[in-house]
Amino acid sequence: MGNLYGYIRVSTRDQNEDRQLIALRELKIPEKNIFMDKQSGKDFNRPQYKRLVRKLKKDDLLYIKSIDRLGRNYAEILEQWRLLTQTKGADIVVLDMPLLDTRRGKDLMGTFLSDIVLQVLSFVAENERTNIRQRQAEGIAAAKARGVKFGRPPRPLPDNFYEVHKAWRDKKLTLKEAAETCDLPVGTFYGKSIQFEKST
Question: What residues act catalytically?
Answer without folding.
Answer: 11
